Amino acid sequence: AFLTLLQARANVQSNKDSVARLESQYKVAQAYYDVGLKPRLDVLQAESDLAQAEQDLLKAQNAVLVQTAQLNSLLNLPLNQQTNYVGELTYLPFSMSIEECLDTAYKQRPDLYMGVKTVQMAEKDVKIAASTFYPQVQAQATYTKQGNDADLALRDMSGSTTPETATFGVTASLQAWDWGSTYFGVQSARETVKKLQADLAKMRLDVGYEVKTYYLNIQDAAKRIAVARTALEASKEGFRMAQARYQAQVGTNTDVLTSQAQVSSAEFNLTQALTDYQSALADIYAGMGIKNTSLMPN
Length: 298
What we know:
The chain is mostly helical.
């Protein structure tokens, strides 16, 4: 939700820049029309695109307000509170290999740890179920001392000694007629162990698939960021050239508006790639069982 808020803020800034570019082009087209150098159609096209950009800006600003309210709700804050959420969409390095990610996940994931403990408990249950196959041995020991004084000494006129007794005993029992139920109880416990081991193996596969997917998403988003930055620089240069050609009356208004739309599209693609990259970072840290809210490498 926080990353979506940052994305909405970036879209607001992109739409503001788009409105500024279209407003500048509208003023140029109007000035040329006023002196009779350009047709009325250029003014209408620029005005139409400017109005659409202003609509997009309003939608982006509303998305920021909605996302702020959602974050307030998630944090148990008043919906109307003006919370100052600080952050920006940037490229954060991630240098771990897929092998390191998988090893970390297998060691850190709490669900895998609980799965291992569950299997170990089930294996001990097998031993407990099989315990009635063997004799049940009990040992007893008793020591008794009697007296009529604080130290249990016997003090009387007869002068007799203090009576002391000690007894020891060992008993063993074996219920042979219960071996049938014991046997099936042991078999049931063993089948439970097999099921839990299969569940644990499947969980490891699912964790590996999850971490691998997030790792590939990081690689994909990183490549898209590089491509989007190159496209943004090229589209900005194309817009500058189209605007200069129009002002020199060797280009058309359509060329300017088209190049402006390409700049806006490139900015949106870059924002989306940065958002996807940080979302993938958040996913892979959670997938590895690591709490890293800053998304910075340890």
